[in-house]
Each structure stands twice: as C-alpha cells, then as structure tokens.
Design a protein that fits this description.
alpha/beta; binds nicotinamide-adenine-dinucleotide; Rossmann fold
C-alpha cells in the first residue's frame, strides 16, 4: 500500500524504530496516529515532526489494555476520518537470564506487550481496515522470532507467536483489500534494553564490543519500502538476512552459532 495520503497507526511511536516510522510516514505524506505508553516520549516525537506535526496525532495508550485499544479506532477516525494502516511495533525485551531464572511477572509482561498487544490492536482495527478500498497491517516480530537468542527465550516465543499470528492472518485475508507484512529486524541501534527496564541484567562491561547495529531510521525505511511493495516478509538488516538463510539450511547450526556469539550476555 502506498502510504501517501493514507492514515497509518504506529504503536511504540515514542522511541526507536517506531519514532522513525512515524517521521518517515509523515515525510512520505501520510497522516499518522502514534501510540505509546509514555506521553513524554510521544511529545518528543511530536517535537521532532516539526512542520509535519499537523498530520500527527498522539495517543497515550498501553497496548496491553484491551478496553483502551478497543477505543482507539474511534479516536483515530474522529481525528482523521478513516484508518488505512496499522504497524504493530511496540515491544519490550526480557531480562537477559535463562528461563529457569525468569519470573512470571517478566514472562507475563513480555507475552502481553509483544503478543497480546499486537493481537488486541489487530482485532480492534481489522473491521475498519476491511471497509477501506485498500489497507495494510504490518507486525514487527524479530530475528529472535525464528532464531533462539540466548537469554531471550520468552521474548523469542512471543515474537514467534507474532510471526504465526501474522502469517495466518495474511492467509485468511487473501483476496481481500487488506495486505499483511511480517517484519524481522536484526540488531537495531535503539535503547530497547533501557526502555524495557532490563539494562541491569546485561552482563556487559563498559568498553565491551557491541554488535554492529542498523540505525533505526534505516530500519524504518526498509520497513516502509516493504509495506509499499506489499511484501509478505521483510528482513531488516544484513544480520537478519544472513541468519534467515543459515537457519533454513541448518536450524541447529544457526542456533549454536548465535549462542556462541551471544552467550556472554548471560550470567555464568
Ligand atoms: N532494537 C532491536 O534490535 C530490535 C530487534 C528486533 C526486533 N525489534 C522489535 O522492534 C520493535 C521496536 O523496538 P525498538 O528497538 O524501537 O524499541 P524501543 O524501546 O526504542 O521502542 C519501543 C516503544 O514501545 C513502547 N511500548 C512499550 N510497551 C508498550 C505498551 N505496553 N504500550 C504501548 N507502547 C509501548 C515504548 O514506550 C517505546 O517507545 C519492538 O517490537 C522490538 O521487539 C527490535
């Protein structure tokens, strides 16, 4: 779906990839409803939008709050008259610990934000999207949604569920006006560990080498190009592309490779 003159909802629009998606959508002539749990983060996105802020509405909503999410379509439609696209991008990672050491509060949070947030948004907006001439849903999974990343087992399970939710939805919507894209970012240079409140769990010392990360603005550009071309799946960054290829050839080897690369992040 070409985004020019469309109305697109972006969750997690207050930081990182979501913020860059909002700014890039505005630059391409879309009107945008940015959703985030943090009002102050949305204020910053609004400030960064500059002259494009006319086309931007902000909604401080927790995507795990089903009643609040159910009320969103009416709020967006009352501001912009319609809604044509949803990008479910809001997400949190888990503390970098093994499953045996992960408590249920952390498990519930990661499943609720990543999986149920995406599900609530999808179900709330789908009837409105089906009523449009053309529409699009894009859900952000992760490279960790097809490949086990050490210390992110439940995050990976949530993102794998987002993958299948999205692929199933895509099949169900074949022949309709609603196109669906699943997105697998690799390592992107955002503050997700800080924003997810898991920095303390990272076994990294100052000066430790960190993996090469794609800037979030570049990730947003790749995602929007995928949406504009109605791609089925979008791999964001060379690491995601490489690991996708390796995983298809030999899943166990791919899992061991990434474990070796990243197991230093786990407590001994
Ligand atoms: N950064 C990476 O390396 C990476 C890699 C793969 C996938 N992803 C995925 O990309 C998406 C964006 O991640 P990011 O790196 O930009 O993270 P980020 O922390 O920079 O931004 C995420 C935004 O989501 C918001 N958010 C969190 N919980 C929310 C909730 N319950 N309701 C509404 N908003 C909420 C946060 O406030 C934040 O503004 C996430 O789904 C993440 O899992 C990121």
């Amino acid at each position: 779906m070409k985004v020019k003159n469309k109305v697109v909802v972006v969750t997690g629009g207050g930081n990182g990839i979501g913020r860059e998606l909002v700014l890039a959508l505005l630059s391409r002539g879309a009107r945008v409803a940015a959703v985030d749990i943090h009002a102050s983060a949305l204020e910053e996105t609004l400030a960064l939008a500059g002259r494009n802020r006319e086309g931007l509405a902000t909604h401080t909503v927790d995507v795990t709050d089903r009643a609040a999410v159910d009320a969103l379509p009416a709020a967006v439609i009352s501001r912009f008259g319609a809604v044509d696209g949803v990008i479910n991008n809001a997400g949190v990672i888990q503390p970098f610990v093994r499953l045996k050491d992960l408590d249920y509060a952390a498990i519930d949070r990661v499943m609720n934000v990543n999986l149920f947030g995406t599900l609530y948004m999808t179900k709330a907006f789908l009837p409105h999207l089906l009523a449009r001439p053309e529409a699009h849903i894009a859900n952000v999974s992760s490279m960790g949604g097809f490949l086990p990343v050490p210390g992110q087992t439940i995050y990976g399970a949530a993102k794998a569920a987002v993958k299948l939710l999205t692929e199933g939805l895509s099949s169900e919507l074949l022949g309709t006006n609603v196109k669906v894209t699943i997105i697998f970012p690799g390592a992107i240079g955002t503050n997700i560990a800080v924003n997810s409140g898991v920095m303390d769990s990272l076994q990294m010392k100052p000066g430790d080498p960190s993996p090469k990360m794609l800037p979030p603005a570049k990730a947003a550009r790749i995602i929007l190009e995928g949406i504009e071309r109605d791609r089925y799946r979008v791999l964001v960054g060379p690491d995601a592309m490489f690991m996708d290829a390796i995983y298809r050839l030999d899943p166990r080897r791919a899992a061991r490779f990434i474990y070796k690369q990243m197991s230093g992040l786990l407590p001994k």
